[in-house]
Design a protein that fits this description.
The structure is a single chain. With 234 residues, this protein is of the alpha/beta class. The chain has one domain: 3-Layer(aba) Sandwich (Rossmann fold), CATH 3.40.50. Helices cover 33% and strands 17% of the residues. Strands 1, 2, 3, 4, 5, 6 and 7 form a 7-stranded mixed sheet that branches. Helix 1 crosses helix 6. The longest helix is centred in the C-terminal third of the chain and has 28 residues. The protein is globular, with a radius of gyration of 18 Å. The structure holds flavin mononucleotide. The site of flavin mononucleotide has 20 residues, from strand 3 and strand 5.
Length: 234
Amino acid sequence: MSVPVKIVVVYHSGYGHTVRIAEAVARGAAAINGASVELVTAEQAPGRWELLDAADAIIMGAPTYMGSLSAPFKAFMDATSHLQYVEKRWEGKIAAGFTNGASRGGDKQNSLVQLMTFAAQHQMHWVNLGMNYGNNRSYTNEDILNRDSYTLGMAGQADMDQSGDVAPPSSDLRTAEFLGRRVAEVAQELSAGRAILGRPAHRGVSGGADNQDPEGRGVTASKRNQGVAGLATV
Ligand SMILES: Cc1cc2nc3c(=O)[nH]c(=O)nc-3n(C[C@H](O)[C@H](O)[C@H](O)COP(=O)(O)O)c2cc1C
């Protein structure tokens, strides 16, 4: 059974490596029958809110620069505080993430945690990589999936002296495809489950959980935004 789901991949890439991972994630998601996928850069995203607000799943990724997500991607994250956060437009959507660095460790975990925290602020459902650690046996090699051994999301590695034509390597791109497929499948499962239960596809319109309401529903954007006018109340 093919369940239609909309998936958006939002990414930043300063020097042409992370875009390869973003494309691979999109390829993987598009391989699932019923999934429609769009790639949007972090710089374009503020002009594409309608697309993002309508998505079932948003997969986000950026290179790790100085131990955290690159500045243009952080600018996109901050831009979501005005409408998407205040009105909880992304509540109940699926989120997943990826990063890329020149180093094997390279503090990439911090970037994945940053993405996961961002998703939680938006009350999204985080989907992890869903794969064991890679290259940790005497008989495994660099061509294995998840060779850098992350679990929160996908983390690639591109040698600094190589261009995006050859780095990150095929094993990372195949790991990224895996993440894309997994997110599309989980999005379909959630969408089909909600349809069976008679629940809306996403609940962004009515807002997320209301701290004052034990039922946890129905807060309006104006009620939520009791802070300084125009600023998100984090
Ligand atoms: C300003 C800057 C800071 C960086 N900091 C890190 C880092 O903390 N960890 C890491 O593994 N790589 C780091 N790198 C390397 C990049 O993450 C790596 O080159 C990556 O492939 C760049 O992706 P892009 O081509 O999509 O911009 C840094 C690169 C730059 C330019």
